[in-house]
Amino acid sequence: MTQINKVLFIGSKEVGLKCAAEMHALHPSSLAGIMTIDDRQDSRSVYEKFISFSSSISTKLFAPKNRKDFAKMILQIKPDLCIVAGWYWLIDRDTLDAVPNGFIGFHNSLLPKYRGGSPLVWTMINGEERAGVSMFSFTEGMDEGDIWGQRSVKIEFSDYIADILLELENETISLLREKYIDILEGKIKPVKQNHNDATYCAQRFPFDGMIDWNKSSMEIYNFIRAQSEPYPGAFTFYEKQKLFIWKAHPENIAYYGTPGQVAKISDKGVYVICGDMKPIVLEIIQMEKRRDLAHKIITSVKTRFTYTAIYKEILLDMLNDPETREAIQHKEKLEI
Predict the structure, then answer these.
(1) Closest alpha carbon to 147 in 134, 159, 158
(2) Which residue range(s) make up the domain with 34?
(3) Other CB atoms closer than 10 Å to residue 190's CB: what's the count?
(4) Partner of 284 for a Cys bridge, out of 67, 247, 268, 325, CB 3.0 to 4.6 A?
(5) Spatial contact of 255 and 263, defined as CB atoms under 8 Å apart
(6) pLDDT tens digits, one per residue of 132-158
(7) Which DSSP state fits 152?
């Protein structure tokens, strides 16, 4: 690989902005442009900051409206290499082949494990002890490319997904700082993945966050903390309304009853019996726009949260609620 002189950054969200800034700090002359999307409908958007940053360093900002527009811009810019962080559009074979040194990006897992969508969510749902980020080359296959570097972090018992996201964001910047110049100068080569060890993640939608109270207290705890903010949240139904659970903790004591049954209410929280006859203590919950301590919303031990066929109709109705329809429509828009 010869010296790379023209690099295009492609990305969004805070991690993307930090990567673009790091690339400029490390080698300003090689940064030929910044590409992002207008995602201001997303609460995590930093689109306005991308505009300000690109202006401050006198670098052109590109904002494609769809995948066809994206592919056209790549052909027009003609970069030697693309660095990608915080990007959610699939890149087709022709576009991948149009860039001589390819696309290098980041995936929040220790590849080849957890290829696909929402890898960190699945990592935490599955109760893994460590999470990670991989810097890898894009190919037409799903997260199958050669690996330039990896970092891992320990998932502590008290960690929620926002905590791990922040740690992985820092590790992503550190990994970029360590590898970027060597990549530009052709001093390092990536390592192939062992495809026999690969595992895959299915795409998740907001309605996948429904809690199954028949699972163990630890499984439910992992399910809740894996989908807490900034994600849509794990939920159950209370008085035929979605009740989101943002914070909870399991307790290693026996409570015999029906899974989903409220066994105790105290200032500490609302104790709900799980499938292993141990409780998970709900601390912070939300119903509609009211977000509060759990014991201020749930006030009766006669309460039962259930996960049965009677909610099948409610789940189907969720397909018509604005939040879910917007998520699905947004995905369809990105596939154009």
Answers:
(1) 134
(2) 7-201
(3) 17
(4) 247
(5) yes
(6) 999 999 999 899 999 999 999 999 999
(7) E
